[in-house]
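Example 3.2
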Amino acid sequence: MADDPTNVAVPLQQYLETAYRPDRDWIAGEVRERHVGEQSHASVQGFLTQIFRNRGIEWQIRAFPEQRVQTSKEHFLIADLCVVSRTVPLEPVVRTAPLLCVEILSREDKMSEIQLRVDDYLQMGATAVWVIDPRRRDAHLARAGRTMERHWEKLIVPGTPIVITLAEMFSELDELEGAKG
């Protein structure tokens, strides 16, 4: 990856003080671009953000799209969506274990790279990680100490009232894609 022009060595303080467009991960001193920009990705991200914000008080949560999450001393990841308990104080960079981190797959994403992100979130103490594939209309739930499980009907965050049905989540995307035909 050292030859990859999209990955650049940057000191941590410079990374924290820089506003990247779109924001980027910082891993062991290297700024790394993420795959973003697809309409299917944006549709799912927007739907989830709206649902979580609409139910924020009921579910006692706060949702942050494109949130920097410090998973370890050497890793700062940009979660597509990060959900924390309402009792957690606001932080510019999330350092308190989130209830949920969501990764929405783009065409260029490789599952091996996504698995590394999932592992990072779980090692920092996240309750759950959702990996959503808009093209295949399926999703995976990851929890500490368990293998990632494929889900076809709904996603949950264990120990919370959070439940999202995949049919509801993908309905707008289905409508958008139907309009193309």
